[in-house]
Amino acid sequence: MRDATREIRLASALVEAADTLVEDFEAMRYLQRVSDHCVELLDARAAGVMLIDGGRSVSLAASSRYEQVALELLEAQHGGGPCLDSYGSGEPVPPVAIRLAHADARWPDFTERALRHDIVTTFAVPVRRRGNLLGALNVFVPTLLDTTPAADATSELHVAQALADAAALGLQNRSTYAQYRALSGQLQGALSSRVRIEQAKGMLAERWSVRTDEAFMALRQYARRQRLPLDQVASAVVEGVVDDAELRRESGTSADGPA
Fold this sequence. Notes:
5-stranded antiparallel sheet, two-stranded antiparallel ribbon
C-alpha cells in the first residue's frame, strides 16, 4: 500500500473512530470496525481488541476477517501474551516473530495457537487515554515486518497506536456522553415530577378552598399511608383518578370546610 493512500485511509479511519456520539452505538461493533481498519491498513491477517479491567480481560472484539482466529488468539492470552504485556507496561509491544517467541517459551499457549494459524508476526499497542488504560489492540501478521530504524518512522506500530488512541478517545467520549444523558434524564424526570406536584397542589387548594401548603400536606400524608411515591399520587390527582374524599381526609377538612 502506497504511503499517500494509507495516510488518506488512516485519516478517514481516525475520523470514524472519533464518531461515537450516535444513538445506536454498540461498543463491540465499534471495536470490530477499529480492528477492521487495522487489518486493511496494515495488510494483517486479523486484529482484535482486548478490554481489560483490574488486570483481567473483560471483553474481546475481533476483525471481521478471520474473526474466529483473532478471538482464539486473544482468548489464548489468559496465561500471558502481547495484550497483557502492553496493558501491564502501558507501552507498545514491538513486532515479535512468533517462531522465535515460541522457541524461547514466551507466551507458550498463545504462540502455539498462532503457529497453527500461520501467524508469523504479532505486535500490540495499549488502548489508553491520558494514562487511563482500557486494554490493548493486537495485530496478527502473516509475514515478517521490516523493523529496521529506517522503517520506524512509518512503521505499522505507529499506525496501530494512532488507531488505538482514537478508539480510547471515542470510548471515553461515549462514556461521558452516556453519563450526561443519564443525568439529563434524571434532572428532567425530577423537574417533571415537581411540576406535577405543584399542579396537584394548586388543583386541590382551589377545589377545597385551602392553602397550598395544606393541600401538599394531604398529598404527602396520603402517599405515605398508601406507600406510594408522591409523584404518582400527584399524577393521579391531575388525571382525576384518585379518591378525592379519602385524600381530603388527610387534610383535616371536609366538604363543608375545616373539621
